[in-house]
Amino acid sequence: MNVTLQEHPDAFAPSAQPLAAKPSQPSAVEVLQTLAITTHLVQRNCDTFLAEQAFPAKISEARLRLLSIVEEAGSIRMSDLASRLHVSPRTITDIVDGLERASLLRRVPDQRDRRVIYLELTEGASVRMAHLYRVQAEHAEELLAYLDTEQRQQLLNLLHLLQRNLLTDGAGSCG
């Protein structure tokens, strides 16, 4: 069952009861639902922020993450990119098509095997990426300003632990 904001406007609102006041241990479902809702809100906030930046194409966190991986690699096969992003190759194709139309990425055939396609940033994208990284870092600082250094480290450690568990054993499914 998919819950939308229109169907349940309070579904994305914080609980009226403070976390410390809850009498019992939170259930696993409650923790995962809160994580999903928070992730959705952060993603929406960041996408809105990035859309307001002067950039030649519609940019989102997903597109910026993809561009960052390509920039770091210098040149990367589409299948390897899909694997690093934990998405299907079809999803990568759709995003790459848009970024290529915006002159931010280019497809480069392998000289030895024409069936293999590599992705590279265009020169224009490389120049603009530095600016996007700066404004993204400033925005992230604003979003997490209320967390002190220890809280940030705790949150990061917990998220890494969850990621490692999901990537290594698959840790069950939610369906």
UniProtKB/TrEMBL annotation:
Note the SUPFAM superfamilies from the entry: Winged helix' DNA-binding domain (SSF46785)
GO annotations under biological process? Answer: response to stress
Q: Any idea which GO molecular function terms this record carries?
A: DNA-binding transcription factor activity
The HTH marR-type domain extends over 28-164
Question: What Gene3D superfamilies has UniProt attached to this entry?
Answer: Winged helix-like DNA-binding domain superfamily/Winged helix DNA-binding domain
Q: Which InterPro entries match?
A: HTH_MarR-typ, MarR/SlyA-like, WH-like_DNA-bd_sf, WH_DNA-bd_sf
Name of the protein in its database record: MarR family transcriptional regulator
In its UniProt entry, the species of origin is given as Ktedonosporobacter rubrisoli
